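Worked problem 6 (solution included).
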Amino acid sequence: MPIYDYQCSACHAEFELLVRQSTVPTCPQCGSTSLERRVSLTAPHGTSRAIVAAGRQAAAREGHFSHYSAAERAKLRG
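Solution. The predicted structure is:
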């Protein structure tokens, strides 16, 4: 099942949906079926680790360490 990006013609909401071939997608905000399928952006290859690292650094600056393993927290605090 592919994920598609849509824009609603009625309320102009932008969203993405996981859609089966037989399913008629509807807008989650207004329920309209008048949708325009948009070109989805793909994630560049090899950047997911960088994105995770940047997110963890931002969380660490704010004092949030709950998503780190115990070993990772020890390295950061040590």
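Discussion: DSSP finds two helices and three strands in the chain.
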